[in-house]
Fold these 2 entries.
Entry 1:
Amino acid sequence: MADEMLGRLARYLRFMGFDTAYARGWTDHEVRARAHLEGRILLTRDRTLARQTPGAVGLCSTDIGGQLVEIRRAFPTIPWELRPDRCTLCNGVLSRWVPSPAEPLPRGAPRELVERGLTLYRCPDCLHVYWQGSHSEKVRNLIAHAAQPLEA
Ligand SMILES: [Zn+2]
């Protein structure tokens, strides 16, 4: 569970397929209660909230690159790669999607590759569509960079 200050980190964790709740607009009490009820690990930059929440991971970095490195150090054994499992916008569980010929492809989808069998994934909740390569180079670089501290 990413706290309100970590919305970008929540998206990056979903890029890697982690079931990540985003605590936007919740009180500290709600954050603690939901993390407990749903069996989630709270990620927060709020030191007080981290202290008050069993099992919470307190982060220091304000930038996404540093936060990813901190996550990698806190959880050195978790898989660290892009996986099309979670919607980065709403955390929905993605499933394979084959558009019918009449259905318009989402903006930016490479029609030629889709016609040649590129696999598409769709979120059942918000209908956002993903495919391999739909993440920007910046996203891929930041994730690859954060994988390195453990390998060094
Ligand atoms: Zn979604």
Entry 2:
Amino acid sequence: MENPEGWKTKKKILAIFAHPDDAEFFCGGMIARWVDQGHCVSYCLLTKGQRGFHEKGMDLTTMAEIRVREQMAAGSVLGVTDIRFLEHLDGELVADIALREEIIQETRKQKPDIVVSCDPTNLFPAVNRINHPDHRAAGQAVIDAVFPAAGSPAYQFNDKLTATEAHQVEEMWLALTQQPNFEIVLTNYLEKRIRAILCHHSQVQATAEELLDKYLKPSLAREGTDAPAYCEKFLRIIFN
Ligand SMILES: [Zn+2]
């Protein structure tokens, strides 16, 4: 297969998002493709999605357990088994210095080549939608952790961090963006992405057929064919 990233080696990729299901919804096709190509992908999720319910009688602890299980199942469909959950509460993420420190620490420990998150400047992803404040906070905190702090030995915030060495990531990829500079056709990975999305039973009511219909766009048909296609878009930042 072609190598649109231009990478010459296998990469260690760390995806950092707010909730269980964000990785699959925002860039599940790309994650499936990266795993398929031999890159090593892991997740760090900042909350356990405790507030992802609408019915009365559910409590935050039970919901967290359900969503962790769903996320582990979804990850294994895509080939991601290294999934770490931080202890923030769904709906209350704030891109403050404390969250930034945790992400710096995670980055310095895991030493990824590539960090993936979502674009914090995307306030209105569609005319009928407001981007979840946790998504924006997560994206902002990740950006602020990666630059300039994670790669600079000058940033030692507290005693915990003095034990971790600075680590400079090579690239940052932001999904859920309205200013993409990298677009890729991932029709071949859509079926796998949908199977992963469907693992999030508590969040998804649609069937596989309905999701296929939603995500396969005739408008994206390529190269003289009229076959509908599926694309993912990113804002890719290459540090040098
Ligand atoms: Zn989310």
